[in-house]
Amino acid sequence: MMAQLQEQFAPADASAKKLQRPWSAHSVNSHMSLQSQESQWSSQMEEGMAQQMVDSFVDSPMASNPVVKPIEFSDVLEEAAASEKEARTEASGYFGLAPGREVALKAGIGRASPSNESAYACALQERLHKVQAEVGTQGANALELRRKLDGARAEAHTNQEELAKLRAKWTDEQPQREALLRQTGEAERRLAEQERCCADALSAHAAAELARPGGGSLSSSSAPAAAHAGPGKDRQGSSAEKSSSQQPLGQQRQRLASLETLRLKLAEGLQELRDALRQEGSVIGQLGARSEALKKESRALQTGAEAARENEARIRRKLEALDATASAAHPRQYALERQAADLRDEVQGLRMEFVSAAGATAPTEATGGAAVGPLAAWATNRRLQAKVASLQEELRLKVEHVQFLRHRSVRVSARSLDGHPVRAPDPKEAAAAQPKDIAKLDDGIGRAMPCAGGAEGGD
Q1: Which of 120, 168, 352, 457 has the most neighbouring CB atoms within 10 Å?
Q2: pLDDT digit string (tens) for 41-98?
Q3: Distance CA 208, CA 245 (A)
Q4: Reported pTM
Q5: Phi, psi values for residue 291, rounded to 5°
Q6: What CA–CA distance (Å, rounded) separates 459 from 449?
Q7: Could you tell me the residue ranges of all domains in the chain?
Q8: What is the residue-wise DSSP string for 402-453?
Q9: What spans are recorded as compositionally biased (Polar residues) (predicted)?
């Protein structure tokens, strides 16, 4: 685009360079005119560039991007006015003109250079750069999101693989879980038996403790002298028995607490195993339903395969029957071919006879008369025409039949190789595929017919 614009305004630039001269106090007006022309050409160039940039931006898919903000023309106009004011200030300061001259210069610049359009083009270009930068930022964000999405997909794939491994491990550990369930059941039974034994022992111990004071009173009533004789000894024996009875009771209670803790742990493990068993049951149910569906599909496929085999056997039987028919039709085909050859020979003989008869009956111009009467020649031509027509019709029918048999045998062999059903050939197609020698024979008969027609016309 820039190259085209440069080629378009190249003559204007060349003329402007030729007209440039050194500044002097007496050539301000001429320089003003040259400056105005150059500014016009530059403004035209900038206007063309801006128009092409706007057209390319409108045609590009960036214009339909919702991220691109609409251009505020008020800002563009303000920027254009500011740039025009700066240009005027720089021009007045550069030339050092008087106020009147400055006014004239401003008027000339205002008339010569449409700086509004150039400023508008610059503003459009800046806005285009901003939009391109924003679109590039959004593209980078989109690429970052895409990388994150790829990472999430890879992580999901890894999680799926780990889940598959965990399921396989769970399936492999199924016998161990079943054995652990059996061991847990046995441990619960043993624990219940031990609890029952502990309860019996505790009840027996309590009964013994309750029965011991009565026995002591009975012994004291029966032997008061012995009781009075050794009270210290009795007290020592009772304290020893109490300490000996308290020691097994503490051990039993400690053992009972440990057994209770073990029972709670086993109950928690049993609940976890029951939950796992329930989940396994649901998975087994799903697998059973899927296996049933696969069985139904397999049965349907087996039925389809059996039907296909039956159809194949039926087609094979048909092909065998067609092969037998084709093999039986071969002798008849050979006989028809021989008969067609005989008919061709007969037609050739008739043609020679017709040619000889036509040469014998032709009138001689030198003598001015005919050698043979015209009626005999006309009758001979009629008979020959009738016979040739009948022979042509018979030959055509036999050739059609022969071609029909040939095409049927070819189609049967081709279909038997491909495994497709056999279709009988069209008689029109068989008639269209005549041999070359039969076509030549028909052409010869056609060339001989005009001779007979000429003789008939002469008669």
Answers
A1: 120
A2: 656 655 665 555 556 554 555 445 444 444 444 454 455 556 556 655 654 554 444 4
A3: 10
A4: 0.25
A5: -65, -35
A6: 16
A7: 2-21+28-163, 325-360+372-458
A8: HHHHHHHHHHHHHHHHHT----PPPHHHHHHS--HHHHHHHHHHHHHHHHHH
A9: 237-253
